[in-house]
Amino acid sequence: MKGFALEQITDFTDFTRGGDLTEFLKQTDNVFNMNNCRSYPVRVSPDAQHIHAILQKPKRGLVTFDRIQRVAVAQSPSYLDTGSALSVPIVELLYLDSGSKNSSALVAVILQNGKAEFWKYWERKAGRDLLQTSDVCNSSSAKVVSVCSSAKFIIWCEERAASESVSAFPAARNNFRYCICKRTYEREERGVRLGGVKISLHNSPCYRVLASRGNVYLLPDNQEAAPGNGSKFFLTWSPKQDRMTVSSVCKGALLSKTLHSTRRDSDYKTMISECIGILATIRPPEICSIAPTSCGGLLLVLSSGYIS
């Protein structure tokens, strides 16, 4: 059997401001290891030509490092300046399918207040233009906590204000004040056209959404653990079919059902109640780390020391 070997792709000297990037990665590694951050603040484009660093402290913003294609590029490094991000945290940066071979050309910067900035990279001028700024959420008081993109969909978990919850009990409103939403996007000549917002899961705890090809995984947020049995399982969702599967790392799939347009059918607590009995009897290990696979699956590093 042929053995595996590591190959160095770059030492960042072929990127604009490569020295700054190396220093940033060193500082980020130290902070990440000490504080166990929920999300590493560096994103690499699908073609590995661009690296984006999400800045939170002391200044909020986004800095890009581009692979040098020509000598002229090295003399005029490009920045992706998201002006509104200076006062609002950046939740995520998404590489959207632009319908061309260059899948890194169209970038969406999603802010915590539900705003989205769509940027286009032009190789000829080695720079970016802001195409448009749009509202991703319907509610002006919504707070985006996690977002991803899959199969022409933008999917996110948002926190709703207490007044928007249908529950009459304050404790229930506090625990299940999130919802999982999606909307389509389509690239046009001068911008991006967004479809209508659809709430696929109502009254949900806080989830981190992670795309892996056509699947979206909903994993309990470690910083805001789901109440009750919520930390014992994770969800797998197909946005196209609106099919949700409840799974546990020790028991596999527990429940699979298609979500319908009625509020009851898409209510988180109603769905989970169908497998609450088995959830009460299991004690799965905690999920320590996650990574999507190229085939649409998910790798889970567990507290037991195993990889699932």
TrEMBL record:
<protein>
    <submittedName>
        <fullName>HPS6 protein</fullName>
    </submittedName>
</protein>
<feature type="domain" description="BLOC-2 complex member HPS6 N-terminal">
    <location>
        <begin position="1"/>
        <end position="307"/>
    </location>
</feature>
<dbReference type="Pfam" id="PF15702">
    <property type="entry name" value="HPS6"/>
</dbReference>
<dbReference type="InterPro" id="IPR017218">
    <property type="entry name" value="BLOC-2_complex_Hps6_subunit"/>
</dbReference>
<dbReference type="InterPro" id="IPR046823">
    <property type="entry name" value="HPS6_N"/>
</dbReference>
